Amino acid sequence: MLQFFSKYKFFAVVLFVLSAIIISIIYSILKPNRILPVYEPDMVNTELVDTTVQDVRKYHKISDFKLTNQNGEEITQQNYKDKIYVADFFFTTCQTICPIMTGHMKEIQDRLQDDQEVLLLSHSVTPEIDSVARLKRYAIEKGVDDTKWNLVTGNKKEIYDLARKSYLAAKSDGDGGPYDMVHTENFILVDTKKRIRGFYDGTKPEDIDQLLEDISVLKNENK
Q1: pLDDT digits (tens, 9 = 90+) for 119-147
Q2: Distance (Å, whole) CA 223 – CA 219
Q3: In 10 A of CB 23, how many CB atoms?
């Protein structure tokens, strides 16, 4: 009996390996690909959404915008046409969560440096302070790649409307006082059709890993 098994040991190993490969292939075929949700305003915490859009259930997209980046260039939706992008809101004088968020945006930039399908977009929530010159200094200090990542300033109402009505990401639209501002730790993942596909805490490393994984999911979806 031992001689029998010894004689056919090689064939048994080959058969085992082939079986494992076949099972793996069948599993990969039958396992459905993960698809990210498309976020509509009525799916998001109402504290983050302007009352004018809270009841919208379909067809929500990021509105057109016209802002100015760290190089004094006009930035619109055309700059992000057919691109996946990550958006956030910050201000250069912030000493709390913004440095962490900017560091994580820099990590995303570096890890996707050669990926032409993905861009970044950071909106200043204190545009009256964050001039083009200030944004440029900040960009240089933080290692921003101008071809990959725009830091934008512009009309305050437009930026706040984007935060509350488009990106569905800010808990306050401001109180009108001297320190009036929206502020959020959210990173927002936007697909090539200008739809929101994910929200992530920009201060948490584990959320950044999830964001990068979800970007890969989106890229596969586009294929």
Answers
A1: 999 999 999 999 999 999 999 999 999 99
A2: 7
A3: 10
Angle at 64 between CA 34 and CA 81, to 5 degrees: 55
Q: Both ends of the chain: CA-CA distance in Å?
A: 54
Strands (E), the chain: 66-68, 74-76, 84-90, 118-124, 149-152, 186-190, 196-201
* All residues at 6 or more sequence positions from 35 whose CB lies less than 8 Å from its CB, including other chains: 217, 221
Q: How far apart are CA 168 and CA 76, in angstroms?
A: 19
- The dihedral built from the CA positions of residue 78, 82, 88 and 93, taken in this order, carries a sign that is negative
DSSP letter (8 states) at residue 168: -
Instruction: Tell me the whole-structure pTM to 2 decimals.
Output: 0.83
C-alpha closest to that of 203 among 100, 83, 73, 89: 100
Q: Render pLDDT for 67-124 as a digit per residue (tens, 0 to 9).
A: 999 999 999 999 999 999 999 999 999 999 999 999 999 999 999 999 999 999 999 9
